[in-house]
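Now for today's protein:

——
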Amino acid sequence: MAPNTGTVQQPKAPAEKENLLAAAARKIGLPARRYAESDVMAFIHGHKTLADLEGIPRAAIHRMARRGFEFLERGDLQKATVVFEGLSALDPYDAWLHTALGVTYQRDDRLRDAERHLRRALAINPYSADARVSLAELLATQGEMKLAAEELRRVLKDHPGSEAPAAVRARSVLAAATKAA
């Protein structure tokens, strides 16, 4: 036993500010990863995504998203939801990921969640034909035909003459709705 010298030892604080998150993670038993303070501040202020912070490249996110679409195509909505929720957390500024999550929620009859994510996708990219057509379809299923038609017309205005699948879908749905009216 060491002799008592009369000095009280203070608990050691992390030597650098950037180690605060790592120290907090270790304290609760999580793996500790060190981030530079500037990266943490950029993340907090929305200038970096979690994917940026973790060094996950866009190509890797898109490979994981393809896996989510495979689950969606097979009708495994639970797995598709897990994939797209996780990817949206990694990059909350990616309209494409919010669209995918919105469509997944829509197929799972989680209509409020679907609308929230489709609208988030459009807030990020107002020209996303996929998000706008998916929102129009959602609005139509809720009986909001006038709003759905406005969304479809916006797609055709933003993408005149486009042969992209969403634009083709917008034209055909709008034409069918016009004939039915």
The chain has two domains: 46-125, 126-181. Confidence is low (pLDDT under 50) at residues 7-18.
